[in-house]
Amino acid sequence: MANFAPVEEREEAIVLYNIHGIIPHDFPEGVYLRNGANPIFGGLKIAESIFGKSSQLWVEGEGMIHAMYFKKGSNGHWNISYNNKLVQTGTFQVEKDRKRPAFLPTVEGDPLAVLSAILLNSWRFGKMTKEYANTSCLIHSGRVYAITENHLPFEIDISTLQTLGSWDVNGGWTRPFTSHAKKAPHSGELVTMGFDPQKPFFEVGIISADGQKVAHKADLKFNRCTFCHEIGVTLRYNVILDFPIMLDARVLIKGKSFIKYDSKEFARIGVMPRHGDADSVTWFEVEPCVVFHILNCYEEDNEVVVIACRAPGSILSGPDHDFWETKNEWFSKGFKHFVQGSDESSADGLFFTRVHEWRLNIKSGQVKSRFLTGSQFSMDFPFINEHFTGLKNQFGYAQIVDSNASSVAGLAKYGGIAKLYLEEGEAEELIKVEYHMLPRNTFCTGAVFVAKTCGNEEDDGWIITFVHNENTNKSQVYMIDAKHFSNEPTATITLPRRVPYGFHGAFIT
């Protein structure tokens, strides 16, 4: 597992002194967080029975928050410290009390074994699977939450990283909660959604700016359960992705995977008034594809513009037959460099992700669609200056997939970061992209944009990210000047211990 392997919790924060370069004086005081999977009890689990076997994926490990604290002393010098803690969900506490694994793996494996695991978990613990809280960190109304979309968020004490309990918005939201809720421009309301294998399949919720109540809730009356990882916002609208990555536990009895991407099914993007309902959504049919992450959405004239990372296939799907014999080869092929015109049945390059733009005309119903980036690099985990969420922006950023390293590992490894110049490129051309590539065998996770204090322009700020050098087995934090993007990092901070690869980050001022 190398740097995908879990690490132990720290007892307390540790002060860091190994800093190369200079941390700018106008870098804001705050906390850089990154969430990620950190399986307890030493690693991944496999359950075997007369029905076959099911196994835990790395992405199913318990959530661990890694935190970097940036504080200025009275003398103006920076004091920097690091800490980490596991997110103590309800299912985490069950296994911690038992001092051994208790929940059976339910995501991948022989279909009947997966079905039996779901039924046994439900019978024994009242939950089909574990609460992971390992995907992202959300900040709303001064509170911080760890989230994965199959359950409620868990509130985190930012100073100690202790878990304070789940958040149901004072009883107003009791269903799954997206890992990527968005703050609406100007109003400060939090726009969320939750998908569920049982009806209602998809609901949208609007949480008040103070986080005290669900101001609006709407069942969008889906007739299928689609795995939707993101929701978008503009000044007036919510943007809904209904793409054909489908969840259906009923097919397990037929020997099929209950998570499946079907390129023959329909795909659509919905534009919904902020406090609308199912009947008020305007749907736009688009070409079937896979989108997990939205870079940004905004309104321009009569169009709603959606910019996202698009791939031809889904990493959540797997081979239908001979699963255990072919799964490693399947994932290895999926991360290979995509070649235009390749046979999708071979899985080569299915996970190759490019930045894509849809322009949805509210008046005419027309859809304009184009790729913004080429096939030089696969890129995902996009982010922007969050002050521009839901508003037209000039710049975006994304982590660059190292296709060769990822193919060898069968898991994504990100060998650099891209800066996207969204307004530099004609309608039929690719946009300008600038790259900050990492040293060989060095990979990043959880990259975020940190805006400069009193900055005047959208890209006044820094990219901050955890990186790990597999040659030295050392982890660091890089600070990259967004205006001098391809230059050496402004500062690198060496950590006292390895930080495993993870998912999404956030910076709290």
TrEMBL record:
Please provide, alphabetically and separated by semicolons, the GO molecular function terms listed in this UniProt record.
carotenoid dioxygenase activity; metal ion binding
Example GO CC term: the record gives: chloroplast stroma
Q: Where does Fe cation bind?
A: H180, H229, H293, H504
Q: Which Pfam families match?
A: RPE65 (PF03055)
The protein's required cofactor(s) are namely:
Fe(2+)
- InterPro entries, A to Z: Carotenoid_Oase
Q: Which PANTHER family match?
A: BETA-CAROTENE DIOXYGENASE (PTHR10543), OS06G0162550 PROTEIN (PTHR10543:SF142)
Which protein family is named in the record? Answer: Belongs to the carotenoid oxygenase family.
According to UniProt, the name of this protein is Carotenoid cleavage dioxygenase like a
Its encoding gene is what?
CCDLa
